[in-house]
Structure formats: C-alpha cells, structure tokens
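Please check this today:
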Amino acid sequence: MPENPDIPDPITDLSRLVEVSTYDFESPQVREKLHEFARRAAQRLGEPIGAISIVLDTAQFFAGMYGVPGWIAEAEGMPIEWSMCAHAVASGRPYIVEDGANHPVHHDNPVVAVDGARCYAGAPLISPSGQVLGACCVIGVEPRTFNADDIAYLERLASEVVGELGRHRIINKATV
C-alpha cells in the first residue's frame, strides 16, 4: 500500500469504493456461491482456509469463507491494516506470502503472530472496468511456496468470482 503521500491510495480510491458498493454481497444466494468458490480454492491448493475477500477502505470483509476460524469467521473480516488481500488490491497483482512469521511486512500481523497464519496466496478480483474489488485467496498454517500453476488457478477462479458477482449488481453501472 502506498506510503508516498503524492501517490493516491488504491484502497481508499473513491471510484473503486463506489464500484464495490454496486455489488450485492449480502444476498444468501451470492454468499452461498462465494463460499463454494472459497472451498474450491482451499481444496484445490490443499490449504485449510479459502476466502473471497472484499476490501473496503478500513476493513476487509469475507463475502465467501471456507475453514476460516474463530473470531475472524464471527466478524466476517478484519481491520484493513491486518489484511494481506489489501496488498493484492493495491497492486492489482497476485500477492504471495510464503512464511508470514519471517515476512518483513507481516511477521507482527496479529493474524500471523496470534492466529497462526503462515502462508497466503491471493489473486485480485478485477472488475470489467478494471477496479480491484478484493481477492480470491488461500491461507495455510505452514510455510509454503506457491507455484505458477497455483497462482494461475487462483487467477482463473478470481475471474469466475467476478463473473458471478457481475450477475448480482444492485445498481446499474450507468447510474454510477
């Protein structure tokens, strides 16, 4: 996430947040499909946790979850400063953490230090207009190297997620 005050922060970019607001993440039918995408990601990559995150300006919301434990599942998300998915949103590219305990950015992250997350791989959810809504990700409790096939799978699944979300817009794009 940008630390240079002259560079706009993609996380708080108004056009991105407006676009996020045009999708229906609360519909039970949408949530069920997003939970299924999260399950597919976790099972295909052999990790205990899969998620479809939507990154807001101050929090990350898990619209789809599989295997998410404890307080994070109850809250359906976490503060943005703890979000690894926010890095995929900020860059618009897949974001990988092979070992959170030894990672220069995430070693002190409570999700790593307290909750035991060790590895993370997330592909951005890029809307047809180019806005990054969140990420399709997996999280594990052991360090891991993700290969090119793993990342390509997450990117394909992220594209499927965006396609599904596109069928559930709550505001016509022409009105935004």
The radius of gyration is 15 Å. The chain has six helices and six strands. The mean pLDDT is 92.
